[in-house]
Amino acid sequence: MSGELPPNINVKEPRWDQSTFVGRANHFFTVTDPRNILLSNEQLEKARKTIHDYRQGIVPPGLTENELWRAKYIYDSAFHPDTGEKMILIGRMSAQVPMNMTITGCMMTFYRTTPAVLFWQWINQSFNAVVNYTNRSGDAPLTVNELGTAYVSATTGAVATALGLNALTKHVSPLIGRFVPFAAVAAANCINIPLMRQRELKVGIPVTDENGNRLGESANAAKQAITQVIVSRILMAAPGMAIPPFIMNTLEKKAFLKRFPWMSAPIQVGLVGFCLVFATPLCCALFPQKSSMSVTRLEADLQAKIQENYPELQRVYFNKGL
């Protein structure tokens, strides 16, 4: 809807209904749009100012509803929902498609030698560590020591797991061997994400009521949040790592790739990219970003505090991260 800006638009919430998968998918197709990474700092700051001003009741003359929502999604794509800080460029969800298509395509092309596997798995897990840190839940800062420990443990554990699984490629058919990188990525995600977000598991993440009033921190909420993110990330990688192997296995038997073998990597990267354009937003949409859980599933001390101060409250809400 265009035209003059109506009052009282809730720009703290997404434009679409987040209680439905379709609404969440529309939201994430906008947030993960790769074109967002091409925006200049000036455009990002303009969007941030527009949203902050609107929240304070300051409406620039001539601003339309569509322009407001566009500013909101530019803001959401680049600024952390809890801290408000500008996120690292390659860690933003809008960078997922170009970064992942390149890394995953290379992982699936160069998987036959141990040095190549080691290099691309390290690149992949380092990138994942940046993404997991950038899209963490909560607003508590990490010290350099905590961040360094998390990075080393996450990448080392994930790469070791990936190398172990890739060793299986020597004992299986070429087609099955192409799927080993996916199994490695899935297993590595189960290690990398919890380790990069280990502070949340130790001290908890902020939980609020429906109106955003902070009630405390919960490690149980962090466990649910991280589990949902792991499931989303594994399924996000699945199409790009499951569909291209069938296509590439067929193409490599054809005369074209035998004549131009150097085309294998670009074709693989393109196929992965096509899959990720759809898999990234759809898998982000599997669970609401503003997740919730019953008060009865919280830690006993937090339950007691909430029941004392808010006896009618049944559910708490939290940002699960991405």
Automatic annotation (TrEMBL):
- Tell me which UniProt keywords the record has, alphabetically: Amino-acid transport, Membrane, Mitochondrion, One-carbon metabolism, Transmembrane, Transmembrane helix, Transport
Q: How does it sit in the membrane?
A: Multi-pass membrane protein
State any GO BP term from the record: one-carbon metabolic process
Tell me which Pfam families the record gives.
SFXNs (PF03820)
Q: Name one GO cellular component term.
A: mitochondrial inner membrane
Where is this gene product found? Mitochondrion membrane
Q: Reaction(s) catalyzed by this protein?
A: L-serine(in) = L-serine(out); L-alanine(in) = L-alanine(out); L-cysteine(in) = L-cysteine(out)
What is an example of a GO molecular function annotated in this UniProt entry? monoatomic ion transmembrane transporter activity
Q: Has the keyword Acetylation been applied to this entry?
A: no
Any stretches that span the bilayer, and where are they? 175-195, 230-247, 267-287
Q: Which NCBIfam families did the record assign?
A: mtc
- Known function: Amino acid transporter importing serine, an essential substrate of the mitochondrial branch of the one-carbon pathway, into mitochondria. Mitochondrial serine is then converted to glycine and formate, which exits to the cytosol where it is used to generate the charged folates that serve as one-carbon donors. May also transport other amino acids including alanine and cysteine.
Its family remark reads: Belongs to the sideroflexin family.
Q: What is this protein called?
A: Sidoreflexin
Gene assigned in the entry: SFXN1
